[in-house]
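Hi L.,

As promised, Nudix hydrolase domain-containing protein:
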Amino acid sequence: MDLASMSEQHRADGDRHASFYVLYNTAHMHDDVPGLPAMVAVRVQRDRAAGMFEMEYAWHPLVAMGEGWLVRRGADQTAFTRQGPIGPADRETERIEALLRASGGSGRFTVHDDYSFDTAPYDTWVIATDTLAADPARPVRVFHDRRQIDNDTHTLREGHFVSVEDARAWTDDLDSPLPPPALSPSARAAAALLGSSAAAAGWARVVSTPPPAAPPPGNGRPPSR
């Protein structure tokens, strides 16, 4: 495994030091199992007085999701320093990344599927249920990330779906439009009620370590989780 830093944060409190990393597995394209997440979030806690340290890590398909996992473990969501050369292409990408980063500690999203391609343009998609969906009739989201090779940027977009099955069907054609939410007055009222409830702590899915099992051959999509 060959790891490159994508995002970092370091904090100190006396003799106790904490470091938070999101690292990219540059060798993931050579994995035996296609589609596995390429990002690993790592928390390192050091106690210099005691001469001890502890470490935990988990795999994630997107950098912002790894940062969100670290926020739940003590990182400041506003203090990450991006290290990699690939930056967000636009403000919409920044907005969605901020949403995912903040939601890592709120339990807002339940992740069902994800897939990370190891060939250009290095698409990554994630299917998740949003417990605070603005449109309760479309609670399932697809987050689709695509890299622009020529200028070292990436574009992150989201689509809103009625069901996980509909979202999975969309992933068969990653160039098709992502559906936006469609709010009726009654849906807005329901969303207001939903938004007033407190979310459970942490991502609703605990990311596996090591990464999840292989997808069945031939369909280009990981198994349901």
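Confidence is low (pLDDT under 50) at residues 195-214.

Thanks again for sending the construct details.

K.
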